Amino acid sequence: MRVGFAGTPEFAARALAAILAAGHAVPVVLTQPDRPRGRGLKLEPSPVKALARVEGLRVLQPASLKDEGARAAVTAIAVDVLVVAAYGLILPAAILTWPVHGGINIHASLLPRWRGAAPIQRALLAGDRETGITLMQMDTGLDTGPILDTVPLAIGPRETAGSLHDRLAAAGAEAIVGVLARLERDGVLPATPQPAEGACYASKIGRDEAVLHWEADATVLDRQVRAFAPAPGATTTLAGEQVKIWQATAEAASAVGVPPGTLLAADAQGIVVACGQGRLRVTELQQAGGRRMNAAASVAGRRIAAGMRFGLPQAREAGSV
Q: Domain count of the chain?
């Protein structure tokens, strides 16, 4: 079949690679414009564009599909179906009706739970035990279209956004190949309307959400650390400088009579931090201007010691309680 594709990040690139490997023709790839990245802020292509270049595919990068000229350039290309995965632009009705069989979206949650931009992080922050992939027939709503297929996945107890992303990307790539094979064979895809019950919205992650507030329960902070790895990274401060926490584990503990954020221990086994409820054992972190390192290296090389306190306002931070 002639499969149009719209996507931008690595999650989408996995699906595009699977579609090509299955032997489908891809006459056009839509992806977002190149963005400045890295310390030099050099314009770089999206992972989808990079793959499309290697495969010799035609790439269009409209800044918006609200423009009539941009839509005309897209819809002039004949496709049987449009596959969409984390594209990042709103698709107007004219785009959804362009392919013979409409649009199929690969979404990283079990809809209707976690519609929207950040389903992987929101599932981890909420402590969900299960998520998955939903393939849906696209409509003009936000992830509201009828369901074509689902692939449930259990969320591991130490799952990070990075590890869950990779498992979901692989599941989505496999699922879309199966659905396209059914469409090619049968010429139609039976769809089931989404249930009204259980719908919730996975809003885009704001950087302020990655700040650790030590008054919270240790289990909540543990989820934050895992949900924001590898990006943007859970953050706190120490002696007025930013620290990113990359690996940590919640521990149940009774009250210790010190302010939340106080370092109760700092040794090769980890940096134990008092929380509003329980304790957080930090085993990997990154101080300002440094690289990621385990707790033992941080304690040995950066003078992190018991009695210091994470998260004080910069004006008050003095390195100890």
A: 2
142 and 278 inside one domain: no
Closest C-alpha to 163, from 123, 218, 197, 117:
123
CA pair distance 238, 221, nearest whole angstrom: 17
**Site of tokens 């632009």:** 89
pTM of the model: 0.93
**Is residue 169 a part of any domain in this protein?**
yes
What amino acid occupies position 178?
Answer: G
Q: What angle do CA 121, 127, 132 make, to 5 degrees?
A: 60
Shared-domain flag, residues 178 and 31: yes
Together in a domain, 140 and 270: no
- Do 105 and 216 sit in the same domain of this protein? no
pLDDT tens digits, residue range 175-210? 999 999 999 999 999 999 999 899 999 999 998 999
If asked whether residues 23 and 89 sit together in one domain, one would say: yes
Note whether 260 and 136 are same-domain residues.
no
**Considering the domain boundaries, does residue 295 fall inside one?**
yes
**Residues of the chain below pLDDT 70:** 302, 313-321
The beta strand positions in the chain, using DSSP E, are: 3-7, 29-30, 35-37, 42-44, 59-60, 81-85, 103-107, 115-116, 130-137, 147-154, 201-202, 234-238, 241-251, 263-267, 270-274, 279-287, 293-294
Residue 95 is which amino acid?
I
Beta bridge partners, 202, equal: 116
